[in-house]
Please model this.
Amino acid sequence: MNRSLLNLIIDLLAATCLLAMAATGYVLRFPLPPSTNRTHELWSLSRHEWGAIHSWASLGLLAVLVVHVALHWQWIVTMISRRFPHTKGTAPVRPGRAGVVTVAALLVLVGSWAAVTHLGVREREIPLHALSAPKDEMENWSNTPATTRPVVSNAAEIISVDFGRDVMPVFEASCINCHGPEKQRANFRVDRRDDFFSLRDGKIPVVPDDPDASWLLPIISGELTEMKSAEAHRLTPEDIALIETWILEGADWPVDRVNGSPNP
Ligand code: HEC
Model:
């Protein structure tokens, strides 16, 4: 094949990959922003699948660029050696040897990245899906059917909070792994009523009617960054608003739910 035709084809492929990356990047940023993966789709593809196309386009671009550089290798080596003239007595740069060195350096780079990422993967203490588990799974805490639950977006919109229906499911989904029957981190249990209302280290987690005095709110809003596992305590703005409203409304916790025994 004619060399300049080959160059043209390679450049067209590069442009196609670049446009595909930009187009899918737009989809991932605007029409399907983060956290819409389970709930929305575009032309029957989820955010996750658009993300896969995005990364394949970027790998395609990388491959095309490698071919591009290979086609211009002789030129690149000549330009670089002209820019940095070799000192007297050393051999002139040979494209073949420079190619081997470059490929070896790239392999080391890619290999180290692979090793570092594989070794760095850790299992989450709380799986993400547990944090976002649908509240229907906590139905045993509630006497109210799921469909009549208010859709909460901020404190002002919450009409009225029900402990069993709204609050306990949050503790069940986000806290009980570390503060429940299995583990009792800091000797605190979310299924033990008294732990919320009694003095701990000079502070009370929940002071009914008084969110500002309630130590729990800075903990779950991530303000106490010096705390161990501060990130594990950070709840969504919706859940924080819900718990704040619950406290504001008097932090009702029916006595029949003491010690994690919901009404059957
Ligand atoms: C990944 C495990 C983990 C999760 C999940 C978790 N915590 Fe904790 N929690 C801890 C640890 C560890 C401490 C001790 C922190 C320290 O001493 O700095 C703690 C401390 C606390 C304390 C202070 C208790 C005391 O008397 O010192 C409260 C209150 C608390 N957590 C409430 C919660 C609530 C409410 C949730 C759910 C929104 C939650 N935690 C989720 C691990 C966790």
Remarks:
- Residues 125-126, 171, 174-175, 177-179, 185-186, 188, 190, 200-201, 205, 216, 219-220, 227-229, 232-233, 235 surround heme C (CB under 6 Å).
- The mean pLDDT is 82.
